[in-house]
## 1
Amino acid sequence: MTAFVNHFVFEFKTGLRDSNLLLMNYLFPLAFYAMMGLVMTQVNPTFTETMIPAMVVFVAMVSTLLGLPGPLVESREAGIYRSYKINGVPALSILSIPVLSTIFHVLIVAAIISLTCAPLFDGVVPENWVNFVLVTLVTVFAFGALGALIGVISANSRATVLWSQLIFLPSMLLGGLMMPLDLLPESVRFVSGLLPATQAMQAYLGLAYNQATVINPMTSVGVLLAGGILALGLAIYLFNWDSRNDVRRGNPLMALLALTPYVAGAFLMG
Amino acid sequence: MSKTSEPVVRVNHFRKLYGDFVAVDGISFEAHRGEIFGLLGPNGAGKTSTLECLEGIRQPDGGTMDILGIDPVRQPRKLRDLIGVQLQIAGLPATMQVEEAMRFFCAYHHVAPRYDLLDRLGLGEKLDSRYDELSTGLQRRLALALALAHKPPVLFLDEPTAGLDVGSRAELHALMQELRDQGATIILATHDMAEAEKMTDRVAILLRGKIVATGSPRELTATGEGFTKVSVRTEQSLLADDGTNFAAVSHRTVKEEYVIYFSTDPGPTVSAILEYIGAQNDKLIDLRVERPSLEERFLEITNSGGVQ
């Protein structure tokens, strides 16, 4: 337990000490939130209705998809995991603790946004705060696990950017963050359903805001949970201690299995 | 605790392949309690592959190996508490502070943090320094402190003095001797022949994945050509000018102002030289008798391709 606490505290502090992580965990998301609050609410006043969940999903994506994978790859390349291995640090801790500490950073920023959005930008607050918190936890877990999986399967830092952007950019455009899902053309709705951001927004709208949704919001929660568990399991299975290692378990393409719950979710969205 | 014949590290017909390349080809050796065992060899000889398999970082492709009866591949968790490792290629997170690193790894070993080791290794004033703020030498000292923190009975050191200054190197050597005297077994991989000669009880010289020589440094230097160098410098340099040869001398060479005789029996050689200098009314300025160094023996072995 002491080892776990020490490790967690260290990883949490790293999220503040490391300038790149500080940027991804706090500076960029909060600056973007301020910009959206000042500009987007003027351009599209209805944005205030979904601003809080949209910004929380954005924060989760930036911290986990853009912030988390890079350090995992760099640690492997720098031989840090070799030091961990010879000192008995388990692979489960190496992956789960950064995910957990990132979740904490996201929750802090999510709390700042949730508490300031209404007074600063007239953002509509959730009707059901308990469900809002629960959906936030599931959403951040799903994204965190995906971030860990991307870090594990990427051969180098450049590859993490590629894989992360493959999820991040479509999520920004089609994930229901900037515009409601029912405004999207039918032809792209299936693609939208493949994105964790879409499932997260559907869960928020249905469970925290009691609004009509395209998919049963509990199904979206199930998709996010299953996706998160599958991604974390695959990350642990495919974890490679050492970039110089000649033996690795499983094929990195197995990581695609983590998308199966989202494919199912997309079909359920019709 | 003193040195015993009890084998602590046992390697039998160990092989390691990388694709078709045979990095280590069926080597066998044992290291005992209270012994510093050196693995010597040029780059690519198989030293690090051997160490990394013993440390459980890589998997052997043949043969057996164990540390105090523990198989590194099958019992990795038990192995962690038995060994301390200073890796040649490893690192710590850039933002990890020295004190944090000690607390972090000691917690995983279920022992109290060893701040005394940090003091001993000159890191006592650097407790709040981040890993990326430390010099290479301090990083290696920290790695060593972490390797020793849980008092392992077996220690693997891969090029431990690389990047260390003279004082740190002497401190490390003193620490190694102290650990050996306390009964620890140390496996030392090094390029530094002077270090190996000074520190090790026995060595194995690896060449292209095979052990080509093994024994104590003294035994190794006594085998082979085994010449003792007798270097003489006189006032009138008469020895350099005439071709006089002396008892038990195989051959000679002149280097700067010294005439160097390679002798199979230095006693008669030195006597004859002194007698000659006296007879010629020359005056002795300097005379040095040096047995072959491990480095010379190492070069002899490696240059001959391991054929002895």
Note: The mean pLDDT of chain A is 91.
## 2
Amino acid sequence: MALARWSGMPALGDVPVQIDVDPYMDIDAYDAEGDLMVLNLGPQHPSTHGVFRVKLYLDGEVCIKAVPYLGYLHRGVEKLCEKLTYANVIPIVDKNDYVAPMTSEWGLVAGFEKLIGVEPTPRAKVMRTILGELQRCASHLLWIGTFTLDMGGAIGGGATVFMHTFREREAILDVFAELTGCRFHYNHFTVGGQRHDVPAGWGAMVKAVCDLLEARTEEYESYLTDNTVFKARTVGVGVIDRQLCLEHGLGGPIGRASGVDFDLRRDGDDYGAYGTVDWKVHTHTDGDCYARYLVRLNELRTSIAIVRQLIDGIPEGPICSLKQVKLPGAVKPKAKASMAYAAIETPRGELGTWVMANSERKLMPHPYRCKLRPPSLHAVSLLPYICPGNNVSDIVVTLGSLDPIMGEVDR
Amino acid sequence: MSSLWSALETGLRNLLRPTTTEPLPWKGTVSKAERFRSTFALVHTPPDSDEERERLRNIPTRLIRGEEKRREDLGMSEDEWANFGEEACIGCRMCEKICPSDIISMEPTGRVESPVKLDRKGGPAKRQYVSQFTLDLNACIVCELCIQVCPEDAIVMLKVQEPPGYSREALVLTIDKLYDNEALDQNYWANGSILIDMQDPKKGET
Amino acid sequence: MSLLGAGILGFIAVNVAMLLAGWGVWYERKFAGRMQSRPGPTEVGPIGLLQPIADILKLMQKEDTVPRDADAGLFHLAPPLTVLVTLAVMAVTPFGPGLVVADLEVGLLFALAIGSVIVLPVWMAGWASNNKYALLGAMRSAAQGVAYEVPLLLAAAVPVIYAGSFRISDIVEAQAGYHWYVGWPPGPGLVAFCLFFLCSLAEANRIPFDIPEAESELVAGVSIEYSGMKFGLFYVAEYLHTIIASLLAALLFLGGWEGPGSDQAPWLGTVWLLAKTLGLFGFIFWARWTFMRYRSDQLMRLCWVVFVPTGLALVASSAVLVWLGVV
């Protein structure tokens, strides 16, 4: 049973609202000052980052309990992974983390490769690293845009930053279109390597994009980092402490902003060319929305630096280490009764793929079971812990700073 | 205060930059990429030498969608007839099987004697044709896998900038529409051989 | 001014204000578009100039929905009332030397009093909509509207103290000779102008103070259940309020209708007044499309902790300056 006690002037914002944060609290046992209002931050809302519903119990404007409802975007992807083969399920998982499809594909393909025991070629490894880092830039740019949109509104300053970041993101998407043909949802990864080779002039294009991004990131920094209004909305808001991050298994930018020094690119299996490049993991200790913003902005810069170091030195050779036999069920796992887990660092955190091969006498060309571990699910599961005690405005900003992608959460 | 001014100044700087949007559909292109994925086409295999062309000139019929047609039925001139090869699609159903969205369906004719193709002994070879081929673009996720697996390079991906249709019915590509599309964009980028060669693990080795 | 003259002037003024509000939408969309690397409206008419007409026609032909358990009387009454109350302020503002509909001795007091009534229709709309988002927006709007009245009045008191009269024409004439209160006497005038400007922004629910209609949280806040022309009226009322706030600021601080050539040709004075109003209007857009919004409690803190003491200090210092005979 929890009581909210106010001392000081709530209207001035210095409300030390002492609410015992208990996500499992029985709301009927709560003793409110007035009536409790139930507000649905419903599936149709400009700031819920996809179809997502949070039921907020409000006492005035302060949230007492928050109940998230997931599943509005569930499409049965893991079931599809059982029906489709290793070769043709990859365009389906593009649509999980639909904002960073390259890393979504990479996560799945890494799992399959670990199961089958195939190594990508050196050229493919370097290409994957470049594409993953460019995708990280694109995803963080989109995040900055939508974050300011949450604070400034579709009619207002947020929209300006949003449009600017999308303009830069288009440059990155043009680079991807030159390589694969699609601006979005590429179906570029395959078990053993890549499906498209680097065209002529791609390196110069990527370098031009890196220069553009660096210049524009300086602009975003000057626009936002010291902006009084931005800081007033984000500093001290939505604080997630380190212990909570560890309990929920959060490692991406959210964890790093709370002091969890963990990055799969450095600490995980050696899955890309990250060991050959000089780069740095950014952490922060505050754990508020501002810290998450700083971590992501710095990650943007680091990604650009990694791409610059790799783009001139892509090793020659084939891009795929498995012959694509022209049969749908071509890729058959050689290992028996095996299961594998592989995880990569997407812009949201650890994307894990656990895949189990069908190990009966007749080896099947599709997995027996494929479980995807989306990082956004763990981020969204924080909401019942960090919403209570905050205003509706702060909840919206915090939800934005967690960067959830519902396609990945619901699959 | 200065931070607020720097934000205002950034806005002003962007005001003075040129716009980056394209006023489609009046001007501009959907995608300038060389490998842009748009709609599909089924292709014919053209003759590859002058002797072949002369031989084809003298063959009176072709099998179109499994039916015999003469030059007069199709209204072609002699030169057009000489360049008109056979339909490449053999109805092997590879594309149908690999499609993640299950949008391809076809009706093969069964193996029949081809008026054009010769077997090793010089007699008419037997091959399969398709009489119906439907590709439902409403559900296509543009993954290029059907292109990749085609053993005959029969289905190719075009780079047209216009949308393939404006209604649900128009987006269901029948076999006639697919063969009509062949004329739309002659320098398509993606067909099976190109993709498979690109992904060859022995590429670059002598 | 005779009753007929006042009527005609009022009619012209209301029409001009509504036209300015309508094409203010066009200007804002073009300006915002260019700031965001896109052209804004280009299709309807040359450079999109007929876009406001297209918008109005579109809004007029929409279905007028009333939520099931809404208070229908208040629901229907709120949008036109917002527009009417906003327009009523123009009864006391002069548009040129001698061109005022009602030259009240307490003109400025009347204008600010009517301006404070605008809170009521917004509150009505929020309550009558039977929607929690609208209610939240209405509560925030009422709190903000009422709170920001205080520094607004204190800032508006500075030209009153300098000129010694509440009649707006007197205030403008006291600034003749380019002694505009924004710059002369140096000090309180500039601060008072900034304060007046910011408080007008807060009254008009403009970014950075537009939390009552914060789209990202409250999905259009107070006007969430309104469709069609009623929603259009809220929109128009917001623009009108902004124009009228700019007009008042131009009259009180920027010398009103004074400009090169305005002594000889009075119509040129009206043109100058219009130019100053539109300049401030343009700056409001620039600020709107640049900044994010403050949170509700931060807004209130800003008002009570920063603006009100500044206003009190301004009143005191301007009174001292008058007593010293500087003005």
Note: Chain A has 15 helices and eight strands.
